């Protein structure tokens, strides 16, 4: 997003990308593991293997929908996003500059 500026200007936005990478690994890897395990699961429980075969393709899209709040910053209980706080800071600075003049 353009409101983040460059990486040097981003001192308040410190988070590890490991959480996002783990989410992506689970999102892509879990359906692959389920499809790989379906022959073994069907030996013990054919009914559950059918259910897993139907659900597995939709695991990634469901997890991506769950990832949207994290990307928007609502996962950390923030009341506003970075763009709104930047605009408020700029308007406060303009007010202070007008008072100083």
UniProtKB/TrEMBL annotation:
**Where are stretches of biased composition, namely Polar residues?**
90-101
Q: Where are the transmembrane segments?
A: 21-45, 51-72
What keywords does the record list, in alphabetical order? Membrane, Transmembrane, Transmembrane helix
Q: Compositional bias (Basic and acidic residues) at which positions?
A: 78-89
Disordered: annotated span: 76-101
Q: Which domain of life is it from?
A: Bacteria
Its protein name is DUF2933 family protein
Name its species.
Sedimentibacter saalensis
């Amino acid at each position: 997003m353009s409101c983040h500026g460059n990486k040097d200007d981003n001192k308040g936005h410190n988070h590890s990308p490991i959480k996002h990478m783990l989410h992506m690994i689970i999102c892509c890897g879990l359906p692959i593991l389920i499809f790989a395990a379906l022959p073994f699961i069907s030996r013990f429980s054919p009914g559950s293997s059918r259910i897993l075969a139907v659900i597995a393709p939709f695991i990634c899209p469901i997890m991506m929908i769950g990832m949207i709040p994290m990307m928007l910053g609502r996962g950390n209980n923030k009341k506003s996003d970075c763009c709104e706080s930047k605009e408020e800071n700029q308007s406060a600075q303009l007010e202070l500059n007008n008072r100083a003049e």
